[in-house]
Input
Amino acid sequence: MKIAIIGSGSTYTPELIEGLIVRKDVMPLTELVLMDIDERKLKIVGSLAERMVKHSGLGCKVVLTGDFDVALSGAAFVFVQIRVGKLPARVLDEKIPLKYGLVGQETTGIGGFFKGLRTIPVLFDIAARMKKLCPDAWMLNFTNPSGICAQALSDHTDVKVLGLCNAPIKIMEYPARQFTDEPCEVDYVGLNHLSFVTSIRHNGRDYLREAISGDDELLQKLDLQMGFSKDVIKRVGGVPSYYLKYFIHTRETVKKLQDDNLTRAEECMAIEEELLTLYSDAGLYAKPEQLSQRGGAMYSEAACSLAESLHTGDGKIHVVNAYNNGALSYMRDDDVIETRATVDKNGAKMLPPTHAGGDYIQGIMQAVKAYERLTVRAAINGSRDDAISALMINPLIADYETACACFDEMLEAHREYLPQF
Output
């Protein structure tokens, strides 16, 4: 088995290597190709990966390359974690919107919109190469905005693709622990970075529905821990993921971002350099604890466990970004959603939740999905009209004059990476 990691200069990569090492008995890895266009980062991160593989006794060949075709040829799985424009582009995504009173964030709002515009054409190029060089391979994409990228790839390429994110694991586990230490069945409904826990069940009892229906003592447990008031949780009809703070507490969040001395991207740049210094230690052959500061927690669990299910056909449940196909009655079958699915060698089968979400969840999902579809169209055709229409739908932007002004400034700032415009 050959696995390629595109964008392997990322400091997240040791998470993936660790996940593959843990699964060496069920994933018969013979060749691991690490590909990146950043030679410095590829050498540093790749050398650590080589030491991790050697120390583990995995025994597979490790190849470092800057060539897409070398990486993709004959691969069974292609992990994609690219950042077009690197972290300096993310700084712009986060800083420029704040001048207009808009959320500055890399995956949602107008920052995520521009990341999508830059990223989709590059993903299409990778998919076209896969069609020629590894037509049976699975692309596992965790490049953000993951849901928009999965919609684009699913609609406009023939590649077998699943989008994923490390966030759902924590989002599902944490609220359940507020009610019981016993294993629970948790319904998780939404789009990538717009998701909700709608049911938490154990032994026939649905703790979350009881709480929302009027058990203030249960609801207070969530109120104290989740960052949203009990009134918000009740009115939303579920526990929002932390990304919903941008939608539910927009003004407060924008003010906090404006008051911060550094953007998250600038913080990540400092953390990344610290990690690269650590990775350069020839005596290091394991993932350092400091990686958790970069937001990489559960990365390998999400990605490598998904690859394991696709390889073995074990039918385990994962949260993925894929076509709805009837799981949620209020979404189109060809809407890419993020929810629980059983995964085997044929791919993912989305599972209808016990509680699909009420009016708020349905309404915001439909609105944001309309925005996502227009974003994909704009990324392909370079239409300013489609771009502005998308931004007018997005609840985080909406205002026409603001959308036009911020779009024009960001387009100029990112012009190098947006030839379609």
About this structure: The CA atoms of residues 16 and 300 lie 5 Å apart. The chain has 17 helices and 13 strands.
